């Protein structure tokens, strides 16, 4: 049996990038031989094993053929006679379809090295069209490698367009879309992900509300701004992306994408706050209105989420920094109200509630008003 380093590890090494996880393909072995050598089987559908010491993944060389529609329609064939080249041929992009032998020789039947040098994302074969997830992966690699100069080559873009036109993308399950989507939000150039999806027509199918040019540009500007805050979380990126939409549109879309609850909630708050923030008069702010916003955001119990909300709104509403600063000021002022102190003064139940509210209003009023008096 022969083991080869494959996929991302070979690609990243050639690009001079840090190699995170190393995947191997094994040619000429049976599952029985792998087990006898101490490997542990992991994949239920595919013959994939973990190395007994390094815990790296070793997959037996396999071919995959599409049978029917949808994601489950793949027939996997694995046997000792499957060649390395056959295994590489089932892969998505040429830069991901190279292998390295233990003696260091590069096995590169689809000219991945040339495409690395030319900075091209190119499909390995027409079989690319059998799996619409590859459109999302290609877009994600564009987002990752655009800063290095990579673009999707014309033939691959044309193939992806044909896939979209033939309805392939309709079959993608939301869980898989979300997985790629959320990874793309954290890549170096998230905008490139959405541009590739837009250019091949997949965006119109997957997130049609964002596809119109003006909305797209607003979404990209907000996302880019949040992205520049280097440690922005997924929910902030996601909420920024949906920020140009009305809340009645954003929330169903977030649900349809099966975004996690934290992402849905922040997107809901951002889109619900947008019209209200625009209603705050920066010259004559009303303490009531500001307190109401803090209540809506549940600032009292969720201060961290509130600061995420402000971060995203600052990116989504760059010309409303006045009201946003007031809201920030109001939150700082109101947070000083100590319910325990009021409790100690004898307030209870409903009265305690209104004493807290009165005190918060007073402090907010004092904090935002001085310029007006
Ligand atoms: P990353 O750095 O994100 O891990 P990677 O290239 O290693 O990038 P993986 O998702 O770990 O990507 O997959 C490993 C390899 O398996 C890829 O390089 C590619 O050759 C192949 N591959 C993964 N998913 C697909 C797919 N849907 N279609 C075709 N080939 C795929
Ligand atoms: Mg990998």
TrEMBL record:
<feature type="binding site">
    <location>
        <position position="140"/>
    </location>
    <ligand>
        <name>ATP</name>
    </ligand>
</feature>
<dbReference type="GO" id="GO:0042245">
    <property type="term" value="P:RNA repair"/>
</dbReference>
<dbReference type="Pfam" id="PF01743">
    <property type="entry name" value="PolyA_pol"/>
</dbReference>
<dbReference type="GO" id="GO:0001680">
    <property type="term" value="P:tRNA 3'-terminal CCA addition"/>
</dbReference>
<dbReference type="InterPro" id="IPR043519">
    <property type="entry name" value="NT_sf"/>
</dbReference>
<feature type="binding site">
    <location>
        <position position="11"/>
    </location>
    <ligand>
        <name>CTP</name>
    </ligand>
</feature>
<feature type="binding site">
    <location>
        <position position="11"/>
    </location>
    <ligand>
        <name>ATP</name>
    </ligand>
</feature>
<protein>
    <recommendedName>
        <fullName>CCA-adding enzyme</fullName>
        <ecNumber>2.7.7.72</ecNumber>
    </recommendedName>
</protein>
<feature type="binding site">
    <location>
        <position position="91"/>
    </location>
    <ligand>
        <name>ATP</name>
    </ligand>
</feature>
<keyword id="KW-0819">tRNA processing</keyword>
<feature type="binding site">
    <location>
        <position position="140"/>
    </location>
    <ligand>
        <name>CTP</name>
    </ligand>
</feature>
<dbReference type="GO" id="GO:0160016">
    <property type="term" value="F:CCACCA tRNA nucleotidyltransferase activity"/>
</dbReference>
<feature type="binding site">
    <location>
        <position position="8"/>
    </location>
    <ligand>
        <name>ATP</name>
    </ligand>
</feature>
<feature type="domain" description="tRNA nucleotidyltransferase/poly(A) polymerase RNA and SrmB- binding">
    <location>
        <begin position="149"/>
        <end position="212"/>
    </location>
</feature>
<dbReference type="GO" id="GO:0000287">
    <property type="term" value="F:magnesium ion binding"/>
</dbReference>
<dbReference type="GO" id="GO:0005524">
    <property type="term" value="F:ATP binding"/>
</dbReference>
<keyword id="KW-0479">Metal-binding</keyword>
<feature type="binding site">
    <location>
        <position position="23"/>
    </location>
    <ligand>
        <name>Mg(2+)</name>
    </ligand>
</feature>
<dbReference type="GO" id="GO:0000049">
    <property type="term" value="F:tRNA binding"/>
</dbReference>
<feature type="binding site">
    <location>
        <position position="137"/>
    </location>
    <ligand>
        <name>ATP</name>
    </ligand>
</feature>
<dbReference type="GO" id="GO:0004810">
    <property type="term" value="F:CCA tRNA nucleotidyltransferase activity"/>
</dbReference>
<keyword id="KW-0460">Magnesium</keyword>
<feature type="domain" description="Poly A polymerase head">
    <location>
        <begin position="3"/>
        <end position="122"/>
    </location>
</feature>
<feature type="binding site">
    <location>
        <position position="8"/>
    </location>
    <ligand>
        <name>CTP</name>
    </ligand>
</feature>
<keyword id="KW-0547">Nucleotide-binding</keyword>
<comment type="function">
    <text>Catalyzes the addition and repair of the essential 3'-terminal CCA sequence in tRNAs without using a nucleic acid template. Adds these three nucleotides in the order of C, C, and A to the tRNA nucleotide-73, using CTP and ATP as substrates and producing inorganic pyrophosphate. tRNA 3'-terminal CCA addition is required both for tRNA processing and repair. Also involved in tRNA surveillance by mediating tandem CCA addition to generate a CCACCA at the 3' terminus of unstable tRNAs. While stable tRNAs receive only 3'-terminal CCA, unstable tRNAs are marked with CCACCA and rapidly degraded.</text>
</comment>
<keyword id="KW-0692">RNA repair</keyword>
<comment type="similarity">
    <text>Belongs to the tRNA nucleotidyltransferase/poly(A) polymerase family. Bacterial CCA-adding enzyme type 2 subfamily.</text>
</comment>
<feature type="binding site">
    <location>
        <position position="91"/>
    </location>
    <ligand>
        <name>CTP</name>
    </ligand>
</feature>
<dbReference type="InterPro" id="IPR002646">
    <property type="entry name" value="PolA_pol_head_dom"/>
</dbReference>
<keyword id="KW-0694">RNA-binding</keyword>
<keyword id="KW-0548">Nucleotidyltransferase</keyword>
<dbReference type="InterPro" id="IPR012006">
    <property type="entry name" value="CCA_bact"/>
</dbReference>
<dbReference type="InterPro" id="IPR050124">
    <property type="entry name" value="tRNA_CCA-adding_enzyme"/>
</dbReference>
<keyword id="KW-0808">Transferase</keyword>
<dbReference type="Pfam" id="PF12627">
    <property type="entry name" value="PolyA_pol_RNAbd"/>
</dbReference>
<feature type="binding site">
    <location>
        <position position="21"/>
    </location>
    <ligand>
        <name>Mg(2+)</name>
    </ligand>
</feature>
<feature type="binding site">
    <location>
        <position position="137"/>
    </location>
    <ligand>
        <name>CTP</name>
    </ligand>
</feature>
<dbReference type="InterPro" id="IPR032828">
    <property type="entry name" value="PolyA_RNA-bd"/>
</dbReference>
<keyword id="KW-0067">ATP-binding</keyword>
